Amino acid sequence: MKTFCTRKAFAAIVLFLMAFTLIFVLRHMDILQPLSPQDALEERLILDSIAWPETPLLPSPISLEQTTDPAHSTFTILPGRKGGQWHVGDQLEVMIQTFDFQGRPKKSGGDFITARLHNRKLEAGVVGQVVDHLNGSYSAVFSLLWEGDALVEVTLVHPGEAFSVLDRLNKEQPDRIYFKSVFRSGSLSETTICDVCLRPTKQPLCNFTDLRTGEPWFCYKPKNLGCDTRINHFMGGTTQNISANEEKLFHSGVNLKVNIRASGPASVTLLPEKIGQLKVKSATVTSGPSGYYYQGVWRAVGGLTIHQFNTSAITQCLKGKAVHMYGDSTVRQWFEFLNVVLPGLKEFDLHSPKQAGPYISLDFANNILVTSRFHGPPIRIVTVSTSDLRYIANELDGLIGGPNTVVVFGIWAHFGTFPMEIYIRRLQSIRRAVVRLLDRAPGTLVAIRTGNPKFLNLFVSLTNSDWHSLQCNNVLRAMFKGLKVHLIDAWEMTLAHHLPHNLHPPPPIIKNMINNLLSYICPQKGG
Ligand SMILES: *[C@@H]1O[C@H](CO)[C@@H](O)[C@H](O)[C@H]1NC(C)=O
Ligand SMILES: *[C@@H]1O[C@H](CO)[C@@H](O)[C@H](O)[C@H]1NC(C)=O
Ligand SMILES: *[C@@H]1O[C@H](CO)[C@@H](O)[C@H](O)[C@H]1NC(C)=O
Ligand SMILES: *[C@@H]1O[C@H](CO)[C@@H](O)[C@H](O)[C@H]1NC(C)=O
């Protein structure tokens, strides 16, 4: 049996089930509310824009032989138009050639490759833009932003062959991480399974679709209790369901986040910028990095100057302001950071469950309010009371807003098991609320934290892969383009940094993110 999360999957499902349960299927067709024509068109355009290059299907059972082997693959620094001399302000281009496990050059693209240029001593780092030539070779293009040595690092995150597995899992088993709710009335208590969409069974459903946002949510109806007796939400467990054979495509140390070696030198020395000289830019990429590290400090490229805010500068910046944070635990990290560094900011004990919140902190002397709240289901962490399950869009509708209001949100890490349609829908409802907020209170500052790369093993790859996070980020960018909101590029800030990837980036990275946020709030202040 399959689920009914997407209309695309639906076509396949109809064929699959038509013979025996057509009527039953049709009854469930609209388990997700239909999108407005405008939203549906946007969804299609966005899905097209994030379409990943196809990789030829592997014969079954899977053998790694024809899949990308990072150990056989190599990269080469191209000499460039100045014949092996690079100045700050130029670009450096690296050609990556992939090979399979038998040592044969790959002829198709679709691998997920990341690239970084860095200097550990200078604590400098920048992310390279990777271009897939669809013939087994890739380019990585780096903006050159500091003087001195620069070492190229190229990483195969996943071979292209992994994505048909991940795609299929998200379509067919979005419930491989599943949720539950307790229903309780008097001495009666029952627990049932809940999700964005549920597998059709004979069991009746409770429909908890949010009436204001249209966010879908369902639980199987308890046998002896009414739907209105639901008291909480929690993660039920996981049903990892891929064959040992498919697991080979996600093998740590073999083909999961493994570095690719250089065929020749892996580093270059960058000379000082030549004033008045034409900059050499690659024809391959049009977009550059959003920033880079130098001496451990994140600097934005283009536009914004990021200031370094010490404790008193943070307090000065936030004086008289209310900062409302919404999202997953990666946003909660920012709340925690401010509580740690600001001596005047005191957390009020709401007796909230650890990890889930909501949280509230106050600095009375400076009239600073900081709040943090989870983004509504799906929430994979601890048990959350139904009365604390709030969608970001509805929370934003409850804000008056204005020049003393800062809104920060980040939502990505709990969506990794679902088809992208679910994430697009969620962002559409949040964006509508952001537009309403900015219409009624144009002075409100809205900042969005993107998803970041993290430690990957088999389990994480299958439930919250960097590949999925990257696509969430692309969807996010496309959907908030042109709005008066600020993106904080957690992806590049984590990827460019020398510290290991972590779902929860370590304090030096958080500090840079906070400085980035504060520089949007207080562009003139700070050191
Ligand atoms: C769930 O409720 C929403 C909102 O009332 C409704 O639009 C939708 O059709 C319902 N879905 C099902 C499967 O009953
Ligand atoms: C792959 O395509 C790139 C860009 O068009 C080209 O430079 C490269 O030579 C091609 N590689 C092969 C093996 O054909
Ligand atoms: C898991 O896989 C087995 C064998 O392929 C299949 O019978 C079962 O229905 C799957 N379970 C889920 C939850 O998809
Ligand atoms: C903090 O930064 C401000 C503004 O940049 C500066 O004037 C002040 O001296 C700094 N305070 C400390 C304790 O470093």
TrEMBL record:
One of its GO terms (biological process) is nervous system development. Keywords: Membrane, Transmembrane, Transmembrane helix. InterPro entries: Ig-like_fold (IPR013783), Ig_E-set (IPR014756), NXPE4_C (IPR057106), NXPH/NXPE (IPR026845). Residues 308-522 form the NXPE C-terminal domain. The chain crosses the membrane at residues 9-29. It comes from the Eukaryota. The keyword Protein transport does not apply. Pfam families: Neurexophilin (PF06312), NXPE4_C (PF24536). Belongs to the NXPE family. PANTHER family: NXPE FAMILY MEMBER (PTHR16165), NXPE FAMILY MEMBER 3 (PTHR16165:SF9). This is NXPE C-terminal domain-containing protein.
